[in-house]
Amino acid sequence: MVDFMVKLPSQLRKPDTILVISAHWEESTATLMGAQKPDMFYDYYGFPEAAYEINYPAPGNPELAHQISAYLQENKIPARIDEKRGFDHGLFIPLKLMYPQADIPSLQLSLLRGLNATAHIALGKALRKLANENILVIGSGFSFHNMRAFSWQATDAPDPANDLFQNWLIETSTSPISQSEREQRLIEWEKAPSARYCHPREEHLLPLHVCTGMADKPAKVVFDDRILGKRGVAFLWN
Questions:
Q1: Residue pair 199/208 in contact by the 8 Å Cβ criterion
Q2: Which residues contact 58 (CB under 8 A, 6 or more apart)?
Q3: 221 by DSSP, 3-state: which?
Q4: Which among 134, 135, 109 has a CA at the least distance from the CA of 124?
Q5: Number of DSSP helices (H) and strands (E) in the chain, helices first
Q6: What tens digit of pLDDT does each residue of 192-203 get?
Q7: Domains along the chain?
């Protein structure tokens, strides 16, 4: 995964701004970071001291936050700006690997409490105007997030249930089906094979729904490998 993240920018045009939909931020109303100089928000516990010394001093982008808020409200999605929220590890871990210079203005958009799949696809659709701008949108979650099932010894024992869901995700996200069918599959994701085994709680899956709603086209697989003994996949929309 580290090697993938380091090399990924070579496949991308350098963005003017980065918007991250983080699995680690849930609000009752769609909320955007509005800080000009965001602090760090260490939203994890029990790690070595060095984990709380990580810094990613990228500037924020309050102007874009207000622009996106307006787009959401135009689509009847209530939105607000949080000027105190800092970068959580859904942003600073991938971006520290991808863009270590921290010279690209960055901000985050929250998930919606209740974790409704339809609402998150709608959130993505409201962001489609951003497709005309040089903005990199990252759905920062994970395609497998069952903490009890991870192998902390990183053993790669066969896990057919894990594979079934990853294969379903690949088919759903990349096949030439209609966009409406793709969205319906994601809305009904719990019907997919091994869905609740891979996602006992769906916060790490829903950034995919936002990106799918925004992209309005098939994705391509850019990562398919094991992390902590479990297979995970990542997608890219050009």
A1: no
A2: 18, 38, 87, 95, 99, 102, 103, 104, 105, 106
A3: strand
A4: 109
A5: 8, 7
A6: 999 999 999 999
A7: 2-236 (3.40.830.10)
SS3 131: helix
pTM confidence score: 0.95
pLDDT 10s digits, 86-121:
999 999 999 999 999 999 999 999 999 999 999 999
- Nearest 5°: CA angle at 78, between 74 and 84? 115
CA torsion through residues 51, 224, 191, 174, sign: positive
**169 alpha-carbon distance from chain centroid:** 15
Q: How far from 224 is each of 14, 118, 146, 153, CA to CA, in Å? A: 24, 26, 17, 20
Nearest-angstrom CA–CA distance, 173 and 180: 12
Residue 147 carries which side chain, given as an amino acid letter? M
**Total Cβ atoms within 10 A of residue 209:** 28
The CB-side HSE value for 198 (13 A sphere, CA atoms) comes to 29
The CA-atom distances, in angstroms, between 121 and each of 38, 53, 82, 94, 179 are 27, 35, 22, 23, 11
- State how far the alpha carbon of 39 is from the alpha carbons of 60, 68, 107, 152, in Å: 10, 21, 11, 30
Here the tokens at position 41 are 């928000």
In this structure, the strands spanning 220-227 and 230-236 are antiparallel
Whether the CB-CB separation of 38 and 60 falls below 8 Å is answered with: yes
Q: What is the token pair recorded at 229?
A: 């003994």
Shortest CA distance to 216 belongs to which of 186, 193, 182, 192? 182
DSSP state at residue 13: P
Q: Which two tokens stand for residue 145?
A: 């997030």
